[in-house]
Here is the input.
Amino acid sequence: MRKKVKQYIQKSLCGILSAAMILTSLSVPEMTAYAAQPGGTEVTTEAPEESSEEVVRDENKEEETSTPETERTMSSSISKTEEDEDASSQSKERETESTETQTASEEESETVVNEEKNKTGLAQEKSEKEVTNREGEPTEETNYIVDGDFNLDNNNDWADGKFGSWAFINDYWSSVTLKADCWAANVETTAEDNGEYGLAVSYNTDLLEAYTFEIYQTINKTLPAGTYKLTAFLKNGTSAKGFHGTAYNEENLTYASDSLALKSTWEELSYEFEIKSAVTEYVVGITITADAGAWVCLDDVSLICTKEGSDGYTLQELKMLYDQAAALIEGKKEADFKEGYSELKSVLETTKTLIDNNSTDTAAISTAYAELETAVNNLKLADISAAFYYYGETGSTLGAVSWNYTGVNLEGDWSGEQWLLNAGTNWSASVCLVKESEDYPGWYRVDLKLDPSITDDGFDIYQLETIESEAKKIFSCDKEWNNTEIYNKLISGDATAYAVGKTGIDYKIIYESEENITVAMRNVTLHVYDSEGTPAIGYKESLKALNDNGEIIDLIETENASGISYYNMEPDSENDGWYSLTFSVPAADETTGEVCGLYSKKAETYESVKIFTNSEIAPVFKGETYYKNEKFYASKALADGITLGMLKTLITEAEAKAQDDYTEDSWQPFSEAVKAAQDLAASLNGKDDTYMDEEGTTAITDAYNALNEAMEGL
Here is the structure.
C-alpha cells in the first residue's frame, strides 16, 4: 500500500509538471519538456506540430535519433508511411507556427492522446505474446519459465509459500528478504525487457557466514527430450549456478559443476542440461550465494529447448538404472519403507526380463526406464525413531524445537507458547520438554521421529529457566550447518540413539547407541571404607568405564577366581581407610536382579561384603557415592560422621552471607536453617569440637545437612 501511494503521488507530480511545461511551450516555439515517470520512463512533450506520433527520447541525447529499443517498439506499431507523413507535416508546421498557435495547442492535445493509445496497444500486443508463450503449444523458442520477469504484486501474489510460480529453499526467511522491485529490474543488458520489476534478494546483516539461497520452479508443461538452456541475469552477490531434476530434494537434483562469479554489473547465467525422455513436473532453479548485507538482483529468467533429442534410452542405460534401483532395497524388507517398496520390486522384475532377453525394442526399453525412474522417486523410507540425549547440569529445564516439523518431529510433553532467544532475536513457539532422567540426574532425553526423505529440517535445544521465561539456544543439529555428523547418523538410521555433552564451549559426540549411552549414564566413582582389607568389585564379566576423555574402555581385572573377575580399589591419598574405583555399574541380571558384588581382599582371598541389586546401588547415580557401614552417603564427611566442629565451621560460613545478594524465596529457608544450627551449637556449649551424635541420635548430622542444603539453594 505504501508503494502504491508513493507511485500515485509521483505520477500526479509528473502530470502537473508536464502540463505546466506544455502551457509554457505555447509561447516558446520548439521547446521540449521532459517529466520523469516512476521507474525511470521519460514522457516527452514537443512544441506544437501537426505530427500525431511522437518518439520517446533519452534526455541525455542531443541528437533526435531513437534508441534501438525505441526503434524496435515503434516499428511494431508505426508504419514507414506514417513516419514520412510526420516529417512532412512537421516541416509545414514550422513554416506557419507563428500564426497558428491556437491550432497547434489543439493538435498537441491530440498528439498526447494518440501517443497514450499507441503505448496501450504496444502493451496489449506484448501481453498477448507472453500469454501465447505461456499457454500455447510448445515451439522451439518457447520459454517454459512462468513469471521469469518477476512482474509480481508483493501483497497479492504470495500463496502457499510461493511467490507467483516461484518456490524457495526452506527456512530462507531467516536469512534473506524477498521483494519484486523496480530497482532490481534488468534494464542495462540486451535481454528482452519483459517487465518493470526484478527480484530483490536482501541478505540479512546478522548472518555469520555466506548464505546460499535457492529459488526454483516446477515446470507444469511436458518437456520433450532434448538439450535445454536455463538463462538468468544477476547483479551483486558472490556466485550463482543452476540446477535441475525430477523433484526438489537432494537425491533428485543435479547442480552445475561451475558457478558464475557475480559482480556489481549485470551478469548472464547460462546453464545447459539434457533431458533424455519427455517429463512433466520438472524442477529447474538457481542457487545464489552472498555475504551478510548483500543486495542481489535477479531478472529475465528463461528456459529454452535449444536442441531436440531422441526420446529413448539404450539397454545399457536401462541396466545402469536397474542396478542403482535394486541396491536401494537390497537386504531390506517392506517394513523398512513408508511407501513404494512393492511398486519398485514389481518394476524391477519387469525390467530384468528386458535385460535378460537383451531386448532391442527401443519403445519398451524407454517405457521401462521411465517406469523404473518413477518407482525410484516414489520409494520412501519408513520414519526413523531415535532418542537424543543431552548431558549437562542437573536441575535444568530444557525444551526442543523442530525447524519445520516435517523431517524432524518431536515426541513428548509440550509446553505452551515459549519465548525463544536465538542470535539476539526473540520468537514464540511451543516447545517439547526435554526431560531429565529420574534415575540418572544430568541426563536429558527427547524422542525424535525423522523422515529420511526430507533432509532440510533440523532441531534446536533451548535452556529454559522457567516455562514462562525467555529461553536461550544451547544446541543445534541439522543436515547442512550444525552438528551435521550427528544429524546424518540419526536420519540414516546408523544410530538409533545419540548422546552429546558439552566440553568447554564446544559440544562433542559421545555415544551412538542405547547400549553405550547406558554405560555412560551408569559410570560412577565409588568410594568404600575398609579398615581391614582392600575392597574390590566383583562381576561375572569384564567391567567397562569411561576414561578422562569420555571414551568407553574395558577395565583390567586384578584377579579372576571361580568365574568372577575382581577389580581392586585404589587407596585414597590420605590412606585413611577409604578406597575408590571408577566403573560403569553393570545392568541387573534378568534372573537374580544382581548387578555386582562388593568384596574385601584379606590375605589371599576375597570375602563377600555385599551383593548389590539395582535398587540397592541406585543412590550412587544420584551422587551418594560414599559407602560405609552398609549405607551410602553424599560425602566423605557425612560417611565419617559430622562433628560439632564441622557444624560450627559451616555456621561461620553461613553467617558471612548477605541477604541482599539473594532472592527472598531462597533466603527465608536459609535463615531458618542458620537459626536452628546456631541454637543447637549453643545447646552443646560444653562439648568439644570432636563431639558427634551419640548412638541413636542424629541432631548434629541433621542440622549440618539442613544448613548445607539451604546454602546450596541460595
Summary: Residues 354 and 364 are 8 Å apart (CA to CA).
